[in-house]
Design brief:
The protein has about 170 residues and is mainly α. It has a single domain, classed as Four Helix Bundle (Hemerythrin (Met), subunit A) (Up-down Bundle), CATH 1.20.120. The chain contains seven helices and no strands. The protein has helices at about 5, 10-45, 50-60, 65, 70-95, 100-130, 135-165. Helix 2 (about 10-45) runs antiparallel to helix 3 (about 50-60), helix 5 packs antiparallel against helix 6 and helix 6 packs antiparallel against helix 7.
Length: about 170
């Protein structure tokens, strides 16, 4: 336990905030699993009509996908979630526990890297719509798998490294 954790017991408000973070991260993880499966199927030659049907299914049945209009909106959702953390949450996290600054610095750097990967997924998906060749399919699948791997590592790091401070915060 860190000095901050010893001096600051968990609060109901902090625990609620951490549960909300876990809920959002859980929804992101769920849809990433579906996207990874779809990426493999796209790479293996899933016909464009079935790709569109799978995306429509995600759009109508996936928790995060219901919040947005289509699969590319998922990228925008993650962008928005990270921007909200950067602007509205991370300053409070730093103020609550100044010793966590290196963790927040890494999280912010991760957000920039994930942002670039999200842009790559959007570009690859748009290109697939224009050119249904094997190289385009491979590009979409690779971009989705790289995004999934990076985003999952980021979510795990954030929960593990920032969780103890989040659970002790008050007055967001």
């Amino acid at each position: 336990m860190t000095e901050f954790e010893v001096d600051n017991p968990e609060t109901a408000q902090g625990q609620a905030m951490f549960r909300e973070l876990l809920y959002i991260h859980g929804a992101i993880r769920h849809d990433l699993q579906v996207v990874e499966r779809l990426a493999g199927e796209v790479r293996d030659g899933l016909p464009p009509g079935q790709v569109r049907a799978e995306i429509k299914n995600l759009k109508t049945n996936g928790l995060l996908w219901q919040l947005k209009v289509n699969c590319l909106r998922y990228c925008r959702f993650v962008h928005l979630h990270h921007r909200m953390e950067d602007v509205a949450f991370f300053p409070s996290l730093r103020a609550a526990n100044p010793a966590i600054a290196p963790v927040v610095d890494k999280l912010e750097a991760d957000h920039r890297a994930v942002s670039d990967l999200l842009d790559e997924v959007e570009a690859a998906a748009a290109a697939l719509g224009e050119d249904d060749c094997e190289a385009s399919r491979r590009h979409v699948a690779d971009a989705l798998q790289t995004l999934a791997r990076s985003l999952l590592e980021h979510l795990d790091f954030e929960e593990r490294s920032a969780g103890p401070t989040i659970r002790r915060m008050t007055g967001f």
